[in-house]
Amino acid sequence: METYDYIVVGAGSAGCVIANRLTADGRHRVLLLEAGGSDRRFWLQVPIGYGKSFYDPCVNWMHRTEPEPGLGGRAGYWPRGKVLGGSSAINAMVFVRGQPGDFDAWAAAGNPGWDWAGVLPYFRRLEDSERPPDAWRARGGPLHVADVSADLHPLCESFLRAAA
After folding, report:
1. How far apart, in whole angstroms, are the C-alpha atoms of residue 22 and residue 5?
2. Distance from first CA to last CA of the chain, Å, rounded?
3. Topology of domain 99-164, per CATH?
4. What value does the mean pLDDT take over residues 11-37?
5. CA distance linking residue 94 with residue 51, whole number of Å
6. Which backbone phi and psi does 37 adopt, to 5 degrees?
7. Do 115 and 107 meet the contact criterion of CB atoms below 8 Å apart?
8. Residue 93: predicted pLDDT
9. Which end of the chain is more exposed for a tag (fewer CB within 10 A), N or C?
10. Predicted confidence (pLDDT) at residue 143 exceeds the cutoff of 90
11. Which helix (H) or strand (E) holds 78?
12. Measured distance CA(125)–CA(123) in Å, rounded
């Protein structure tokens, strides 16, 4: 029987990072468990594939919330990844950081180190951005972050100006 120092349940973004960090120095053995299968599927490798994974029970737990008063008593649909990479594997290949105010609220609620200034260095360490390194972005991390601004349709800028 094989033995492990740690068992990590769930190979989504957090589980994979935790397993990687625990094994990075070579001193620990980790068993990483995932209920879903491989993320090597065509529709998970292209941005438009989100539409295919949205209701695919092979890669999506397809959770429903309890009925919500704010939704007129209806239950909400809550897609969650059931595949290596978890929900990050079924999110249309989009990388978006949380809002700084949300992190600051966590710190204000009694969670020191979870303010925006505390988590920003970890975001920077995580990414390999196509943008030049600055106070917000960095290069060399394990997560490639593409800059698609040059490929935006001209109407996107018009839409944003109209919304402002």
Report:
1. 9
2. 61
3. Arc Repressor Mutant (1.10.1220)
4. 95
5. 13
6. -100, -155
7. yes
8. 85
9. N
10. no
11. strand 77-78
12. 5
Q: Is the pLDDT of residue 47 over 90?
A: no
Work out the pLDDT band at 2, boundaries 50, 70, 90: very high
CB-based contacts of 9-12 (< 8 A; 24+ apart in sequence): 9/33, 10/34, 10/35, 10/86, 11/84, 11/85, 11/86, 12/81, 12/85, 12/86, 12/87, 12/88
Q: What is the pTM (predicted TM-score) of this model?
A: 0.75
The position carrying tokens 């698609």 is 148
At residue 88, what are phi and psi to the nearest 5 degrees?
Answer: -65, -25
| Amino acid occupying residue 110 | G
Kindly report the three-state secondary structure assignment for every residue of 58-69: CCECCEECCCEH
